[in-house]
């Protein structure tokens, strides 16, 4: 009897140890499982849904951060400038004209320049995530063949890399330029245009629109004051010169669109052209600050950057503007 009781006790103890041992093995697996979950990639909110991520591009210049921003130091990438070329205030091919850099590298004035898609220099570069245009005014700075004023300036182009083209202001298709800009500095001339519309095939129309800064003092810096105003054919063109109406008598007195502008402050613009009507929006994108009709030119293109005004042989200093956005509709 004692033997049976002892054997029963032995079986009970053995069963108890077996049960405890199984529970112990199960608990020991938990840390491994938790560690595997912790090692899963996260997208910043703990969901683990990260895709390709921002990362850096193959060229090491940075890539999309996933929120529409980029770490790139290439202006083309920062502003997605697929519809542009640039004119620069330098002459590397020694033809006494400002050099131009194109999407199609084979069209560049200077054969050693890369494509516009990777171009940057001291006149066109990324600063604090924005694109900065800087242009000197000193005597001898190269200019284009049809102007004595210097520029570091974009010219609207077909995004497929084709040559110069122009759009028709009289059609029902809306042509739009939207941009955010701040003026950093003016030269001794106190003024430059930071956006334009040009016509390049008709004899009457030329610079249809120039949106300009004029600082209260020469060589103005951030914190100084000035005015934003509109020049070009829409405010200066005369009927006696062949324009459909006398734009000067109609619009010149209303050329100022922002007084007491402080250099360094951001401005948001939108310019639209449709059915011979141009509308200019400033900060309020729903209500135009100026509307001009009788816009009958048919070979136009947008421009943006720094185009110094009233330069002379004694001019000094750089005009500098910074853009955080330049967006243009597909117009060609």
TrEMBL record:
Compositionally biased tracts (Low complexity): 136-150
Top-rank taxon: Bacteria
Annotated Gene3D superfamilies: 2.60.120.200
Cross-referenced Pfam families: Alginate_lyase2
InterPro entries registered for this protein in UniProt: Alginate_lyase_2, ConA-like_dom_sf
This protein's UniProt keywords: Lyase
Designated name of the protein: Polysaccharide lyase family 7 protein
Organism encoding this protein: Aquimarina mytili
């Amino acid at each position: 009897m004692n033997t049976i009781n002892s054997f029963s006790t032995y079986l009970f103890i053995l069963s108890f140890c077996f049960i405890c041992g199984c529970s112990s093995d199960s608990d020991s697996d938990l840390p491994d499982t938790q560690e595997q979950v912790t090692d899963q990639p996260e997208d910043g909110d703990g969901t683990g849904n990260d895709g390709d991520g921002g990362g850096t591009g193959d060229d090491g210049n940075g890539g999309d951060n996933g929120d529409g921003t980029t770490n790139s130091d290439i202006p083309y990438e920062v502003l997605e400038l697929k519809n542009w070329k640039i004119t620069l205030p330098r002459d590397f091919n020694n033809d006494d004209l400002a050099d131009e850099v194109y999407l199609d590298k084979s069209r560049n004035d200077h054969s050693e320049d890369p494509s516009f898609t990777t171009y940057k220099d001291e006149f066109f570069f990324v600063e604090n995530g924005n694109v900065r245009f800087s242009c000197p005014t000193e005597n001898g700075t190269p200019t284009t063949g049809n102007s004595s004023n210097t520029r570091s300036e974009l010219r609207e182009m077909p995004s497929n890399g084709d040559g110069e083209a122009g759009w028709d202001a009289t059609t029902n298709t809306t042509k739009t330029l939207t941009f955010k800009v701040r003026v950093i500095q003016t030269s001794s001339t106190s003024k430059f245009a930071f956006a334009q519309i040009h016509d390049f095939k008709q004899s009457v129309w030329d610079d249809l629109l120039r949106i300009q800064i004029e600082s209260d003092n020469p060589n103005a810096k951030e914190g100084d004051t000035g005015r934003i105003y509109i020049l070009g054919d829409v405010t200066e063109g005369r009927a006696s010169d062949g324009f459909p109406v006398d734009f000067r008598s109609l619009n010149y007195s209303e050329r100022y669109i922002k007084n007491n502008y402080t250099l360094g402050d951001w401005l948001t613009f939108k310019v639209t052209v449709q059915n011979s009507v141009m509308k200019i929006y400033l900060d309020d994108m729903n209500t135009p600050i100026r509307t001009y009709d009788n816009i009958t030119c048919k070979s136009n293109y947008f421009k943006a950057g720094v185009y110094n005004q009233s330069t002379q042989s004694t001019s000094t200093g750089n005009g500098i503007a910074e853009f955080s956005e330049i967006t243009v509709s597909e117009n060609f």
